[in-house]
Design a protein that fits this description.
This protein is mainly α and 200 residues long. It contains 6 helices and 4 strands; from the N terminus they run E-E-E-E-H-H-H-H-H-H.
Length: 200
């Protein structure tokens, strides 16, 4: 038989396969930062010495945007960019080095010291974006360009994204609004998710 196919564990067969790419994740690597001591990456599983998953504790003029996994990168990057701009413009102060190290230790206790350190997922990703927003808002000159803050409707949508996507596909992929799919986010109560505190 010349047919190229893959049989999955559930018995489903996908035909006309050109290639199989076996993906196991990736490692963080910054070869252009090898001269920094202590190193920002040791085993590739996470970036080390980070405050707010963003600022290098030893070199605060070095920042890493969008390291997290299982989160929405664009709104997160926007909030991170606002924080970087305010800190580097001396409009917002970083805590002391000891406080930043304590903060990272707390994150390691919560998230782990390996690959899980950068996995935020829901609802941590939404809390993180809002915490950055709230922090940037305290800058001495306020907002120059205000990043997004995730309110109840956006957080509810993020929480139910898989369910919404499945319904969209199951109904033929033609709906143009959430209401057409039967979702009404105005009646959803997600205050605890929005206002809940995280160590991120």
């Amino acid at each position: 038989m010349d047919e190229r196919a893959v049989r999955f564990e559930d018995g489903r067969i996908e035909k006309n396969i050109d290639a199989i790419v076996y993906c196991t994740g990736y490692l963080y690597s910054y070869p252009f930062l090898r001269s920094i001591t202590p190193p920002v990456v040791t085993d590739g599983r996470r970036v080390r010495d980070l405050y707010q998953q963003l600022f290098n504790i030893n070199y605060p003029t070095l920042a890493f945007i969008a390291l997290s996994q299982k989160s929405f990168p664009f709104p997160q990057s926007e909030a991170q960019g606002a924080a970087i701009a305010k800190v580097w413009a001396n409009k917002l102060s970083l805590p002391t080095k000891q406080e930043m190290q304590d903060s990272e230790r707390k994150q390691v206790e919560e998230l782990g010291d390996g690959a899980r350190f950068h996995v935020l997922g829901f609802p941590k990703d939404a809390r993180y974006i809002n915490e950055l927003y709230d922090w940037v808002k305290t800058a001495s000159d306020g907002f120059a360009k205000e990043p997004a803050r995730w309110g109840p409707e956006r957080i509810s949508l993020r929480e139910r994204y898989v369910e919404v996507r499945k319904k969209f596909v199951d109904t033929g992929g033609k709906a143009q609004t959430l209401e057409e799919l039967g979702f009404d986010f105005k009646t959803t109560s997600v205050g605890a998710i929005v206002d809940g505190k995280s160590s991120i």
